Amino acid sequence: MDEVKRACEEKMKKSLAALKDEFNGIRTGRASPSLLDRIRVDYYGEKAPLSQVATVSVPEARLIVVQPWDRTLIGEIEKALQKSDLALNPSNDGKVIRIAIPPLTEQRRKELVKQAKASAENSRVALRNIRRDGLEDLKKGLKDGAPEDQVKKAEDELQKLTDSYVAQVGKALEEKEKEIMEV
Question: How far apart, in Å, are the Cα atoms of 30 and each of 24, 151, 178?
Answer without folding.
Answer: 12, 49, 12
